[in-house]
From TrEMBL:
Signal peptide: none annotated. Residues 215-243 have a biased composition (Basic and acidic residues). This is Ribosome biogenesis protein NOP53. It comes from the Eukaryota. InterPro entries: Nop53/GLTSCR2. One of its GO terms (cellular component) is nucleolus. GO terms for molecular function: 5S rRNA binding. Residues 1-31, 97-121, 194-323 are annotated as: Disordered. Residues 288-302 have a biased composition (Basic residues).
Amino acid sequence: MPVLRSATAGSGEAPKQFNQPSRKGKKAWRKNVDVTEVEEGLQEVNNEIIRGGVIREKASEDLFTIDTTGDSKIPQKFPKHVKKGLKADEIINRRSAVPAVSMRKRPSDKTTDGVVPAKRQRTDWVSHKDLARLKKVADGHHENTVAVRDATFDLWDAPAPVAQDPTDFLPEKIEAKVPKSMKLKPLSLLANGKQAPAVPKPTGGYSYNPSFPEYESRLAEESTKALEAEQKRLEAEAAEAAKLEAAAKSAAEADAAEERANMSEWEEDSEWEGFQSGVEDERPSAKQPKRKTQAQRNRIKRRKEEEQLAQHKANMKARRAQEQRIKEIAAEVAEKEKEKALELAKAAEQDSDADSEIGEEKLRRRQLGKYKLPEKDLELVLPDELQESLRLLKPEGNLLKDRYRSLLLRGKVESRRHIPFKKQAKTKVTEKWTHKDFVL
């Protein structure tokens, strides 16, 4: 039903108050709602209803028609083209005078090219060899007997065979095998076998503003280590110098002895050389061992049997004694295991705090792989370098180096040597000799 409008509506727009000072209230907000689009839409719907109905609500058959006859004025406007017809219709209606090729098989010609065709083997008969073999099989005489064996695998659990494509000549891709060590836990380099913490907690001596007792103890500890290292270095240098001096001295003595031997060769008398050679031939002959008699062999045999019997009796006696006090032994073993578990628990509690702190770790080996574990940097500020202000503070240490050494210490990775330049292949520059092939 169309909307009725009064004649006194004016332009049809809602009243507006553009100069209203405030719009906070709901009443003022309703007055200023712009309903222009709604009014225009309602007006269009009313116009469509007047013309015969809303277009969106009608079916397609009511809105459109299909022209099957064509325009009747076209033959009047273009009579020449209508009589002649279209070129496309002419091509479609064109027919050839030559009949189409039949799709049936035709008999081959009797003429040949003179080449004798290869004789094909007949497949509709059985040879004498196959006939004899079939007769033997029918009589129960088999050439190859199949031995029945129990299945060693589940047939239904086996993967289905994949048909190989004959056109696929590429080799199958072999996946890399996972090493067994990937499933094992990493080996720690610590002597106690425990896993070192990834980020150890520093003590008070590592602070840039430490307390005096902690700093003094750590400074004394590092000083002792430095003195010991210097002492070892000096001892190694002294040992190397002594070794070189001893080698030089022994070489000089060998040269002097060789010179004395060369000088005394022509002074020695050779007439007394063979006089004392007969003394060695007159040595008293050693006493030849005699063969044992049967009585001696029997005596030795009886003594061995008695020793074995005595040992067996002693073992049986000790075993019976253990069987009698087996309950006592079980109680003792249980008590020892309990004490050992308590000791391990106490040690774990003590080490839980100590392991998380930075300290001098004891290693069971110095390397895991080809290269040794890098030494830990000395993170110590000397007394004259201590600053009272954070502005003058110089940060020390390297987190990247610490993390890398922690990975090495926990056995996560192996130590590697930095290779700055890759070894390049050697190239040889030569001159071609093709200019010698030039002929006038």
